[in-house]
Amino acid sequence: MTNARALRLRVALLVGSVGAALLGSSEAMAQRGGAPSQGPTQSAPTRNLQVGPQRGGSPDDEASGPSASSPSAQPTGEPTAQAPADPLAMPEDVRDRIGTDHDERPPSPQGSLHQSFFPVYEERRGDYRLRLLPPFFFEHTRGVDSNGASTDKTDTERLSALLFYQRRSPNKDADVLFPLAWRVRDRQNHVLVLGPLVHREAPNEHDNWLAPLYFQGSREHGGYFHAPPLLTTSHWDDKGAFTIVGLYYRDRTASDVDWGIVPFVFRGDNGNEDGARKKYTLIPPLLFYNRWRENDESRITVVGPVISESNPKRSVFDVAPLFFSITGRPDTGGVKEAHYTLFPLFHYGNKPDQSLFVLPGYLRRVTKTTDTLLTPFFSHATTRSGATSLTVAGPILPIYYRATDTDIDYKATGIFPFYYGSSSPTGTALATPLFARFESYNVSHTYWAFPTIVYAHDIKGWEVDVHPIMYVGRREQSTHTVLAPIFWDFASPTGRTTIGFPVYWRFSETIDDSVTQVAGNTLYRQKRVSGGLDWEFHFLPLFSYGQNPAGYFWNVLFGLAGYTRNGETATARALWVPFTVAGGTTRTASVTP
Length: 593
Known about the structure:
The chain is mostly beta strands. The chain is flat, with a radius of gyration of 55 Å.
């Protein structure tokens, strides 16, 4: 809606002109009727001045400047450059190409001020004229000659009765009866507004509006049409078009066309004539869909549960979810193949290098390098052209098991649940209901004996387990001993934890030689500090004793009676109240919280 935006801009300009005439007449008078400018303006004529020394003149004449030269002193044989009448004027084609912020307003008028007061107030200065009969008549004119007559550059604006605005100029005209009627001309662009009716004419384009019922317009390469009451909208140009009429829509981009009647039918065609044409049709009520592509010669059609698809290599026909089929087309670039599925009863498929046959309880798959047979009673599979093989027999669960891999000299045999054995260059395995042995050469050994005895050792340690009672072992520098549920001992280079449940608990850390130990109703704690060891012993709840590098303490019944020495300070306790007995300036009782 570029033209609508331009129309709104022109209307705003007209309203601004009316407001300027109404509210700014005094400012206009001051600007246009004030004292003349003291110097030339942008539009003032420029005198032709001779530059450089002239023939026949003296040095004094040259120094005195052009004002000292007489007309007879000018040379007649040399060309002179004539300055343009308006040096700042810009041709329209140049302005349209590069843009400009010049508002085309003329400069301040030059000359003496002439005023008259009857029958209307009038003032003139140069090409400017102002006429006033407030509040009924306002007229402002630029571009008149010295006698006040109009010229081909005259620009006149009038406001009559505060409601009718009129402008006449070489490029812009306006007749506005606010707010009912507007007639505006901007060069070759003509706009007529009569209430909700709008008509615009310009070279190769026009607009006709009856807001909000009807909007129509055309451009040199397109146009638009909008009718909200008819639920209709449309716009078009050389590149494409878009139309909505109720439930119908049509979208065109170059030769690509999509249309539909929502939600009944949808259709599209890209119109490509270079071998890449595509078409589609979708009819949701009929559960119908069709798509065709020219570049890969493929087509797919869906009608309810029936699906048909074809391309130069294969064709597909399905009746979902029961029947599925694929057929190869070797005559047009595909391979000779066929696949059929009747779910869940049957599947058969074959290609030149493989085949697959499936029934309930039976599967057979054969390729150039593999052969697989699976049943509930017997299964056999080979891979890598027979280098590996697997044989399993037994109803449902395997009773006989045999696996080989000739490439790595691996063999395994099992008769379950009585025997399993395997061997390879890296190790062996033997398992029976009473004894099992697993060995990884030069790495580890593991032995199991009925019912739950396990012995294992490897390059990092050993372990003996009697599940779920006893666990003893070593892993590098760490050891563990567990006799569940009464004894746990875990030791490592950083510490040790020992528990004799429920009467003995000991936790130690080697970093600071700290120890916390509980044995019955005794508690022992120690920690290495600066200068030595800080330790304490409690025979709960009767007696406590401890030492540190600065002193010692003892307590009876948590302080009923006690004594503490810390360096030169000594404190005694009686009935849990501490008294400073040494090391202070006074010996008064003090209660410590």
